[in-house]
TrEMBL record:
The chain crosses the membrane at residues 86-106. It comes from Pavo cristatus (Indian peafowl). The keyword Amino-acid biosynthesis does not apply. Pfam families: CH. This is Calponin-homology (CH) domain-containing protein. Keywords: Membrane, Transmembrane, Transmembrane helix. The keyword Membrane applies. InterPro entries: CH_dom, CH_dom_sf. Residues 4-115 form the Calponin-homology (CH) domain.
C-alpha cells in the first residue's frame, strides 16, 4: 500500500514539473498523454534543445497520430535519452507505452541526476 502511495506522489510531482516546464496542461490519464511520445520528445528538447530533431504532432485535420508515428516519437525520445546519458528503460509492445512506467522511471532517473549533481533541467527540483 505504501509503495502505491509513493508511486502516486511521484506521478503527481512529475506531472506538476512537466506542466510547469513545458507550459502544457496534461489530462488526468497521464499514461495516455505520454503514449504518443509528443510530450516526451518536448521534454527531451527542453533538457537539451534539438535533441529530438523531428516530432510528429497531431493537427486539427488529423487529431490522432498513427501508431507508426507514435512509435517513432517514442523511439526518438529513447534515442535522445541515450545521447543525454539517461538510462530510461521502457518496455512497450507495438504502439502501447506504459505511461506510468515511463513517469516513474523518468522521475527516478531525474532524482538520480540531481544526487549526482547533474542538472539538465535547471530548477526542476524546488
Amino acid at each position: 500500500m505504501e509503495h502505491l502511495r509513493e508511486e502516486r506522489e511521484q506521478i503527481r510531482q512529475l506531472r506538476n514539473n512537466l506542466e510547469s516546464r513545458l507550459k502544457v496542461i496534461l489530462p488526468d490519464d497521464i499514461g495516455a498523454a505520454l503514449m504518443d511520445g509528443v510530450v516526451l520528445c518536448h521534454l527531451a528538447n527542453h533538457i537539451r534543445p534539438r535533441s529530438v530533431a523531428s516530432i510528429h504532432v497531431p493537427s486539427p485535420a488529423v487529431p490522432k497520430l498513427s501508431m507508426a508515428k507514435c512509435r517513432r516519437n517514442v523511439e526518438n525520445f529513447l534515442d535522445a535519452c541515450k545521447k543525454l546519458d539517461m538510462s530510461v528503460n521502457i518496455a512497450y509492445s507495438g504502439a502501447y507505452l506504459g505511461g506510468a512506467v515511463v513517469i516513474i522511471t523518468l522521475s527516478k532517473e531525474l532524482k538520480d541526476m540531481k544526487r549526482r549533481g547533474e542538472s539538465y533541467i535547471p530548477g526542476l527540483w524546488h
